[in-house]
Protein: Cyclic peptide export ABC transporter
Amino acid sequence: MKILNFMSQETKVSKRRILLLAGISGVANSMLLVILNEAATQLRDGDIETQLFLQYLLTFLLFIFAQRTSQREAVAAVEHALQQVRIRLADKVRRSELRTIEAMGGIGSYSSLTQGANTITQSVMYLIVGVESLLVLIFASLYLLWLSPASFIIGITLISITITILVLHYQKTFHELSLAARKEGEFFELFTSMLQGFKQLKLSRRKSDAVFADITAAANETSRLKSHSNIRLLEDILLSNVAFYLLLLLIVFMLPTMVTVYEEKLFQVIATILFMMQPVYRISAAFPNISKTNVAITGLYALEEKLDSDQSVHQESPPLPFTEFQSIAINAVSFSYLDKQLNPVSQIGPLHLSLKPGEIIFITGGNGSGKSTLLKILAGLYKPEEGNLALNDTPLKVSDYNAYRGMFSAVFSDFHLYSRLYGIEDCSEKVVLKWLTTMGLNHKTEFKNGQFTNTNLSTGERKRLAFIVAVLQDCPILILDEFAADQDPEFRETFYKKIIPELKTQGKTIVAVTHDEQYFDTATRVISTNV
Ligand SMILES: Nc1ncnc2c1ncn2[C@@H]1O[C@H](COP(=O)(O)OP(=O)(O)OP(=O)(O)O)[C@@H](O)[C@H]1O
Structure:
């Protein structure tokens, strides 16, 4: 059972102890039935013995203690296991290569982290109750054997057939549920793309209808698969009901006509069979839930396997053996992007670039000519497949990359603006205010208690704020991808004529993709990616 392996793999909690406690609770539960039946017999013959009352009380306390402890420990263990997986996956995501994360796509790829985790949390209770119920069923069956071997044979035959059919159903349900989970993932991805492309859809009814048709198809298919598997689950419960009423029919109406000694124990037999109903319900409910958990755990580990296929996830990164750079060179670097299955597509290169401290390099070139890719290779975000990236004339080793990337701060075209200054929390409010004023944002936002008070700004203003964050990081090299493209002419003038020269004076090296030819004289060199 995957859930048990999951718990032992991810936590130190003893699954044996939890299962043993669940078992004790099941045995104690069955003992209550035996004691009650005995009490009923004693009552029929006279008074109930005090000893029997005390036995009932002690067994009841043991039952409550074992059930409560096993359930509490199981819930705590599974939550701890999920916490481990969440943290480990988040860590693997941040260690992954950019191209792996880009190829894996949006949040839909990570749905196993949210939906899957919820399923696992819920089903651990079903598992514990299922184990307890199994023990109740075994002990109640043995008690039935002692009461009436004929009822036991009929009962065990019917219950075995019922459970066999349930297990066979369980295989099919497992398959359907995994298909439904995949479809639901597609639905969430389409839903996310609808929100991301909201403006385009709002402008075009036809586009909106076409996207909506895709969303509807995914929702319909998810619903079909889910309702099919849920109906199968209901059928399972119905099947166990039918089996029990058939069992009672055989034992109450037919068996007494065949077995004479049987009549005096009929009451206990009926009580035992009624007592066995609930465990069979619970076992039949546990099966589908455990199958859902198997799907969820498989999904979680599949996500982790995908991340693990990226070697960088496992690499440690010692600090670089230098404090300042004298040169950086991209030497005939070729690189390929990946598709969703993480297979290489879109070959780029060979690319060349050399960089010295204090240089201001502008990169220009046509769309798709590789400007952004070049910036990302320079910053160590994409690793060369051929050629090399050399620092101070020494090609970088794979283990150098993490420390190497630390030399860069950047404003990429798809930057994300964190309102907190993560990683530079010690930055003084005075310095931030100076930059807010320089960038014309001091009336738009403030920096208080380690965060910007307002990040709901225009596109150009948000980019200016991202620039401030990049500058405050105080790295030797600043990378800018078409930073000025969204800025007004007045600010553009200030940016190229005042801000960039000021950063140069401070010793910064700047590599910027730009098409602003009128300011090319600000650069020490302009290079083109056009071939
Ligand atoms: N994530 C990706 N997956 C696959 N191919 C990609 C990806 N990103 C870029 N490419 C391809 O790599 C090539 C270079 O892209 P890049 O973004 O570096 O060009 P660019 O010069 O910056 O373009 P633009 O001026 O349009 O921003 C293009 O042919 C593009 O199709």
In short: The chain has a mean pLDDT of 86. Residues 1-148+285-310 form one domain. The two ends are 58 Å apart (CA to CA).
